[in-house]
Write a structure and sequence with these properties.
Blueprint lengths: L6 E9 L2 E6 L9 E2 L2 E2 L8 E6 L2 E11 L5 H4 L9 E12 L5 E2 L10 E4 L2 H8 L6 E7 L6 E5 H6 L2 E4 L6 H15 L5 E5 L12 E4 L16 H9 L9 H16 L23 H13 L1 E2 L14 E3 L10 E2 L10 E2 L6 H12 L4 H4 L13 H10 L4 E5 L8 H18 L12 E5 L2 H4 L8 H12 L5 E7 L7 H5 L3 E4 L5 H10 L5 H4 L9 E6 L6 E4 L14 H6 L10 H9 L3
Parallel strand pairs: 12-21, 12-22, 13-19, 13-20, 14-19, 20-21
Antiparallel strand pairs: 1-2, 1-9, 2-7, 3-4, 5-6, 5-9, 6-7, 7-8, 10-11, 10-24, 15-18, 16-17, 22-23, 23-24
This protein binds adenosine-5'-triphosphate (ATP) and magnesium ion.
Adenosine-5'-triphosphate binds next to helix 4.
Length: 588
């Protein structure tokens, strides 16, 4: 019998990255105790080691059987009774005293020895961390073993946190952002928080929220390009481009933007302003103009109604308050004043009016002092608030954003930050010189692969495809990876997968994971809360990791159902009044 206490068996088959191991019958126990620790032989997901001179090759046990996988080929040479066979996927190697490396350069062969991996080997693999890494959790097999993630790869090669509801995604997100902010003084993270659950976990963050007295969230509508404006202001799609009113709207928006070339963040060449430029214009004036021409009466008959001078205006408009001008009514007889012929904007005007009257959209269409003009706030102020302050984390709380404009809100936030990183890519204070992480909670709601029109998806896909080059990384958090845009999934470098019960979601993780380690992924439905399988670029070796439970926590904790239901209920006719008020005002 082999003397080495860690000896496990020998290789009987090698097939590219998979080897088959026959466990030695001479091993005295299926659970040997080495240096006071109990090791279980043949546990799925555990590591084994194959020493080849000064090279140690490492693999993960992916299946266990009492017959070899190719029985026919081996039946004359081996007596199987009582034997055990392990299928092992090779994951990496360590040469001499060098660090562990992913991937295998030298392959083991038949009859090479296979050994158990004990804690000291794991320390060799996982290392002790350095200035490039953050602590991400503890290895599931050992409380003493810290798992580190390479922060450069985690952020700039993008990352995804997936798991069924209640599996611990929000807590994991807090752990990662905290670790980044703690370790790097100059780090900056923007967290898109559609349920408003993270502010409680980050007391020091800058938190922007609609209608908040101190830090209101404003997303000025004039960040939209023309296609977006047309869609959200008047419900027109880009396929309407041949319609007269669509063309006229473009002309009108361009005209109103060109007036505003003198801006708080610097003057802009008026010849470069188009309907797509993020230049402020007064959307109420746009409505006023539509409304005026629609309702005007003229002293001249329709064919001559070209100028304002011939109109019969009685009271001028107060378009800031959405009050139209009043005109002398036209009589039914045919002798003037005459009814307007300018009725192209008939539909658009009504839609625009109802959008501007809807106070739920005020954070966008009535964005406070964000007028852009000198003496008011402009986009540089918005960037300074979100990503320029000394706070390392900005939480954009979108919990009160009406669902119908959640998509465009996330789209505008993303494109604006992306543009600021792209155009500032070589500036000292941003771009490549000060990378940024954008995190998206509940990503499946606005990055859904089945949505044909999605402004958020378009912008976030661009971050995933191009962001790295300008210092912009992204993290998405979702309970339904199978619903996420495929372009985004394909660009995720590191997968942090918590318990996932849905088989469609599991197979997406399996097929999207950069490392071919299906055996670990197969463990997804049986993970404990707060336990994750991490695979990909940021981690030295695919691992099963326990994430620490944070304090303070996001407000996503399970309600204490039993305690709540045990309390006696006190009926009161006044009950539910405050709830109804909140529903009506959409305000907490
Ligand atoms: N690492 C952990 N250790 C122990 N308990 C945890 C851990 N992470 C989360 N929990 C507990 O699990 C519950 C759910 O956690 P969390 O809100 O992070 O889940 P989630 O995946 O974000 O859920 P959802 O999809 O509904 O947002 C919480 O009550 C929390 O206390
Ligand atoms: Mg959550």
């Amino acid at each position: 019998m082999k003397k080495d206490i860690t000896y496990l068996g020998k290789i009987i088959r090698v097939d590219s990255n998979v080897v088959e191991v026959e466990v030695s019958n001479e091993i005295p126990s299926a659970a040997p105790i080495i240096n006071g620790r109990l090791y279980k032989i043949g546990q799925i997901g555990t590591f084994v080691k194959m020493p080849l001179g000064n090279i140690n090759i490492y693999g993960v046990v992916s299946s266990v059987s009492n017959t070899p996988s190719r029985l026919e080929e081996n039946k004359n040479s081996i007596n199987y009774i009582g034997s055990r066979f392990l299928t092992v996927q090779l994951v990496g190697e360590k040469i001499g005293n060098d660090d562990f490396d992913k991937g295998v350069g030298t392959y083991p062969t038949i009859n090479d020895e296979v050994h158990l991996v004990i804690e000291s080997d794991l320390f060799d693999i996982y290392g002790t961390g350095d200035e490039n890494s953050i602590k991400i959790g503890k290895h599931s097999s050992s409380e003493n073993l810290t798992v580190f993630a390479d922060v450069h790869k985690l952020v700039l090669r993008h990352c995804g946190i997936f798991g069924s509801t209640g599996s611990g995604k929000s807590n994991t997100t807090v752990s990662i952002i905290k670790a980044i902010n703690l370790q790097f003084n100059g780090s900056r993270v923007v967290l898109v928080d559609p349920h408003g659950e993270y502010s409680s976990a980050f007391p020091d963050a800058s938190i922007f929220k609609i209608k908040d007295a101190e830090n209101p969230l404003h997303i000025p509508y004039w960040l939209m390009n023309f296609e977006e404006l047309a869609y959200f202001l008047v419900g027109a799609k880009s396929t309407d481009y041949q319609k007269v009113e669509y063309r006229k709207l473009r002309e009108l928006v361009t005209k109103l933007k060109k007036v505003n070339y003198q801006l708080a963040s610097g003057n802009v060449d008026v010849n470069l302003i188009t309907a797509d430029s993020p230049i402020p214009f007064n959307v109420r004036e746009l409505w006023g103009e539509m409304n005026w021409w629609l309702n005007a009466t003229f002293s001249v008959s329709p064919k001559d109604q070209q100028t304002v001078a011939t109109a019969h205006e009685v009271t001028p408009a107060d378009y800031e308050n959405l009050i139209g001008a009043i005109f002398t009514p036209y009589p039914v007889t045919n002798n003037g004043p005459y009814k307007t012929k300018h009725n192209d904007f008939y539909q658009y005007e009504k839609k625009l009016y109802s959008i501007l009257k809807d106070t739920r959209f005020d954070f966008m269409f009535n964005p406070g002092n964000y007028k852009g003009t000198v003496g008011t706030k402009d986009l540089h102020d918005l960037l300074n608030e979100w990503i320029g302050s000394d706070s390392k984390l900005a939480i954009l709380d979108l919990s009160e954003v009406p669902f119908e404009i959640l998509d465009i809100s996330v789209g505008l936030i993303t494109r604006f930050i992306y543009d600021s990183m792209f155009w500032g890519r070589s500036d000292t204070y941003t771009g490549k010189n000060r990378p940024l992480l954008l995190a998206y909670e509940e990503a499946h709601t606005y990055l859904n692969k089945n949505d044909s029109i999605s402004y958020a998806k378009k912008s976030v896909e661009q971050v995933f495809k191009e962001g790295r080059k300008f210092g912009l990384g992204a993290l998405i958090i979702s309970q339904r990876p199978s619903e996420i845009s495929e372009t985004i999934l394909a660009q995720i470098g590191t997968f942090i997968s918590l318990r996932l019960t849905n088989s469609k979601d599991q197979s997406i993780i399996k097929s999207s994971s950069p490392d071919n380690l299906n055996s670990l992924i197969d463990l997804l439905p049986s993970l404990r809360t707060g336990e994750a399988i991490i695979v990909g670029e940021a981690i030295t070796i695919p691992s099963r990791v326990r994430i620490k439970l944070n304090n303070p926590r996001p407000t996503s904790d399970d309600p204490e159902l039993v305690k709540a239901w045990n309390k006696d209920h006190q009926p009161n006719p006044e009950n539910y009044k405050t709830v109804v008020k909140k529903i009506r005002e959409q305000k907490n």
